[in-house]
Each structure stands twice: as structure tokens, then as C-alpha cells.
Amino acid sequence: MKKYGMSIVMLGLAAIPLTGAMMSEGEKSFAPNVEPATGAIWVPEDYTEWPTLGTWTHAHTDEKLGEMGPGVHEYHVVYTQPETIAYYQKHRRFPDGAVLVKELLDAKTMAMTTGPAVGHATTIKGWFVLVRDTKGRFKESSLWGDGWAWSLFNADDPRHTVSKNYKTDCIPCHTPARELAPRNAVDADKWIYSFGYPVLQKR
């Protein structure tokens, strides 16, 4: 009887780490910056250690062009995980859990020995973050849909988004990308301006 009771205790103890491991696995997020219970996303703390997908520049136009002359007033530097790039190069699509971080930077233009109008980044204005979702998670969230999670963050708060509804706050800026996307691209990937990221085309 004692031996039988001891066996039950040992089995119970053996099950504890297994149950804990299963719970941990269940609670683990599919992306490094997604809260698995709520779908809240934030700016990943280590995103600058990721490879750069590409950089966009915004030149002076209209009043700024007249006041300041030729130059740039903003840079957008886009980062993603190294495994996202490797997956895209092989499969020609973004994988589930891919994170795109667009760092928004103020810029200054000045004359230098390399030219009369040379632009450089100055301070961070904020971030725009996308997370690829191939499984249609968080359907009740107004920031998840069309294959992605979408959020804009101000420079003073990388943990809490200022976006309210991706359909009105984010989709309008990404709609032109669909006309410029590869014809055979996965539908959700057509929201991304992938032509601006030459590294994705390398094999």
C-alpha cells in the first residue's frame, strides 16, 4: 500500500514540470511583441539589432520646398527579424509572426563636401509596427485584420499605440501598395511596399 501511494506521488511530481511546460507553450506568443491574451502589440525593444529591410526618404515639398530649398525632412527606416528575410527569400511571402518596424525619424539637410544638399536623420518621431497574422487571430480587435496587426506609436510611448482602427488609420496609406505588388503575391502581402526592399528579392 505504501509502495502504491509512493508511486502516485512520484507520478504526480513527474507531471508538474510537464504541465508547466505545456502551459508555458500555450502562453507563448507567436511574435515577440504580441500579448497572447489580448493581441496588444508594442515596439520590440531590440528591433535595432535586426536587419534593415530598407529606408524611405521624404523630400521637402510645397511650403517647405520654398522656405528651405531641396532636402529631406523625414526618414523611414524599416527593420524585420533575420528569419523573416530568410523565409521570404525562399517562399516569396511573409511568414506568420513576421514583424515590420518602421522607425520614423526627423531629418536635417545641410551642405557638405559630398554635395550642397545632404540629408541625415536626427531624432525619432515614432514607429509604425506591423505583425503578420496568417491565422486570423483577434477578430474582435479593431487593430487586427487583412492579414496583419497594425499600430502607430509616438516617440514618448513605445508600449501603447495611438491607433484606434486600422481600416481608417492605416489602410489608406497602404492601399497604393496593392497596385505595385507582384501579381502572384499572397493577398495580405500586397499591403506591403515590398518593391522598396531589395534584400527580399535576393536568394
Automatic annotation (TrEMBL):
Residue ranges constituting the Cytochrome P460 domain according to the UniProt record: 44-179
InterPro entries tied to this protein: Cytochrome_P460, Cytochrome_P460_sp
Pfam families: Cytochrome_P460
Keywords from the UniProt entry: Signal
Keyword Phosphoprotein: no
Segment forming the signal sequence: 1-21
CDD domains, A to Z: cyt_c_I (cd20750)
UniProt protein name: Putative Cytochrome P460
Organism per entry: Nitrospira moscoviensis
